[in-house]
């Protein structure tokens, strides 16, 4: 079930386009990671989705409706907080603002305080909190009310590794009911937490793929350990359907090859293409391991291309 | 209405529990009473009316209202809480009306506190009650209109110092420049306080101040709305 539908968003600042024809959708329960280099338009996209900014053209629908504010929780990069309020006052203000009935506010507040381990801080003024607790308080604020979409811009900022794991678990526990869109510079965090990744570069959506399919979307690399006639092994380079990126002489006459095959070949025959080619040349195959194409590789591949 | 009240309560709390708000409530009457002591005891003006009190009041409005109004915007700017408010389910008019109401409440508290002075003077002699009442009413109206105008300038200009200069300049022009007759007189607050100062209750002037308030607040909400497209 599609929860968020983003159709052809265009946004310019002072006549220079920041978002160019961005379209995607997010299903209910999906956790989507938004990546991109600085200035790619990530924050602008999140601001448009949260209704802080209006798009020049295009539509954003949440549950099929254009009223986003009522059912969207948004944590901006700066984690805005009212410094002179206590944690309790702040969260109760947000609960009232989001239309939670007076009778339910206290229960909802207690649930959030427990979820984010803010029991000891609830009566403290926000200005005296450490950056980790401030961030937790801000995330708890974004999660108040009856939301369908949670937008988090750099949620792990200021959190220690333990708190990051806690946050990850909280987001996962929430994600069944709501959709989550997270922007982060920590690629590993996105890779662990998200079901899908969007890569934005120069205002354009360059990549949209589930994390589990990342390997097969671009080229695939195999680490292959072989032994045999060195001339025959060298002749493998002449085979056009794959390319040998590197070869390494190892002990016991073993040679380690890094072979890249296209995504299409991988989908059709997996590693059989390589093993068949080796068998045809009577080269002994000792191991054939898929080198996982990390999110970082993909990110660099997409966003670093122009810098080459 | 509930939404406006939620925001109003937050804004009011922000103002009351701030140094600016606290000092305004405290300093306004202190400065005003010091002025009255100066007039009565030192300058020995021998005036048996409250004209100097009302004149000082107008000056105090020009000094205090822009600072008080800017307080909320400065805080929003500093802690980026404007981003929070604008992504919560509040309309632009909710944001502006609640802010105006919070500022008006603070001004009303200050105003109520300063009423002690004219009341205390009545025991000293036979004051023109009607004239004093219309003068005070005009001051309250001009204070409310000044707040609305400063709210408008604060939403229009993002630079806080420029905003303060513009707000003070606008109030100085509208409140203290005395122009007799003509279009400029129609525009200024002072022009519309004349009948009140003579003890007359002019509905036309009440409408003028109401129009300034409504127009400023509507324009402010439109500016916030337009900023979302920026």
Detail the topology: elements first, then pairings.
The complex is a heterodimer of chains A (308) and B (230).
Chain A: E1 2-13, E2 16-27, E3 31-35, H1 42-49, E4 57-62, E5 72-75, H2 87-97, H3 102-115, H4 131-142, E6 149-153, H5 161-175, E7 179-183, H6 187-193, E8 196-201, E9 204-210, H7 214-217, E10 220-227, H8 230-235, E11 242-249, E12 254-261, H9 263-269, H10 272-280, E13 284-291, H11 295-303
Parallel strand pairs in A: 3-7, 3-8, 5-6, 6-7
Antiparallel strand pairs in A: 1-2, 1-4, 8-9, 10-12, 10-13, 11-12
Chain B: H1 2-16, H2 19-42, H3 51-79, H4 81-87, H5 92-114, H6 116-122, H7 129-156, H8 160-176, H9 182-187, H10 194-197, H11 203-227
Describe this structure in words.
The complex is a heterodimer of chains A (308) and B (230). Chain A is built from 11 helices and 13 strands. With 308 residues, chain A is an alpha/beta fold. In chain A, strand 8 and strand 9 form a beta hairpin. The longest helix of chain A has 15 residues. The model of chain A has no long low-confidence stretch (mean pLDDT 85). By secondary structure, chain B is an all-alpha fold. Chain B has one domain. In chain B, 80% of the residues lie in helices and 0% in strands. Chain B has 11 helices and no strands. In chain B, helix 3 packs antiparallel against helix 8. Chain B is globular, with a radius of gyration of 18 Å. At the A-B interface, helix 2 of A face helix 1 and helix 4 of B.
């Amino acid at each position: 079930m599609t929860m968020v539908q983003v159709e052809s968003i265009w946004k310019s600042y002072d006549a220079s386009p920041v978002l160019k024809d961005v379209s995607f959708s997010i299903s209910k329960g999906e956790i989507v990671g938004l990546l991109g280099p600085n200035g790619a338009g990530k924050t602008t996209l999140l601001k448009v989705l949260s209704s802080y900014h209006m798009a020049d053209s295009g539509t954003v629908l949440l549950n099929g409706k254009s009223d986003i504010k009522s059912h969207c929780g948004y944590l901006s990069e700066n984690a805005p907080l009212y410094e002179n309020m206590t944690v309790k006052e702040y969260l109760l203000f947000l609960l009232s603002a989001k239309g939670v009935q007076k009778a339910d506010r206290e229960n909802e507040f207690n649930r959030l305080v427990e979820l984010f381990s803010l029991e000891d801080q609830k009566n403290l003024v926000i200005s005296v909190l450490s950056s980790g607790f401030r961030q937790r308080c801000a995330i708890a604020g974004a999660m108040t009310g009856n939301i369908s979409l949670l937008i988090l811009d750099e949620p792990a900022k200021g959190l220690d590794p333990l708190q990051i794991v806690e946050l990850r678990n909280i987001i996962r526990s929430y994600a069944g009911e709501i959709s989550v869109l997270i922007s982060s510079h920590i690629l590993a965090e996105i890779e662990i937490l998200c079901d899908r990744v969007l890569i934005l570069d120069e205002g354009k959506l360059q990549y949209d793929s589930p994390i589990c399919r990342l390997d097969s979307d671009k080229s695939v690399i195999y680490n292959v350990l072989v032994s045999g006639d060195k001339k025959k092994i060298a002749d493998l380079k002449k085979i056009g359907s794959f390319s040998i990126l590197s070869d390494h002489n190892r002990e016991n006459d073993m040679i380690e090859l890094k072979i890249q095959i296209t995504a299409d070949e991988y989908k059709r025959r997996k590693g059989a293409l390589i093993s068949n080619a080796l068998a045809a040349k009577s080269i002994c195959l000792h191991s054939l391991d898929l080198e996982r194409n990390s999110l970082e590789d993909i990110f660099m591949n997409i966003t670093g291309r122009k810098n080459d | 209405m509930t939404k406006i009240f939620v925001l109003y309560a937050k804004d009011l709390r922000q103002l009351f529990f701030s140094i600016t708000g606290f000092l305004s409530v405290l300093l306004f009457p202190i400065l005003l009473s010091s002025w009255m002591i100066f007039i009565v005891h030192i300058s020995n003006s021998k005036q048996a009316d409250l004209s100097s009190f009302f004149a000082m009041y107008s000056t105090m409005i020009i000094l205090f209202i822009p600072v008080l109004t800017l307080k909320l915007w400065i805080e929003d700017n500093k802690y980026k809480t404007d981003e929070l408010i604008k992504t919560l389910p509040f309309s632009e008019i909710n944001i502006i009306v609640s802010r105006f109401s919070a500022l008006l409440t603070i001004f009303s508290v200050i105003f109520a506190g300063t009423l002690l002075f004219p009341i205390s003077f009545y025991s000293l002699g036979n004051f023109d009650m009607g004239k004093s009442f219309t003068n005070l009413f005009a001051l309250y109206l001009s204070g409310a209109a000044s707040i609305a105008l400063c709210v408008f300038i604060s939403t229009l200009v993002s630079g806080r110092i420029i905003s303060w200069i513009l707000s003070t300049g606008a109030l100085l022009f509208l409140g203290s420049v005395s122009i007799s007759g003509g279009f400029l007189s129609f525009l200024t607050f002072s022009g519309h306080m004349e009948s009140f100062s003579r003890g007359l209750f002019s509905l036309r002037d009440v409408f003028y101040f109401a129009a300034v308030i409504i127009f400023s607040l509507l324009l402010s909400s439109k500016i916030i709305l337009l900023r979302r497209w920026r």
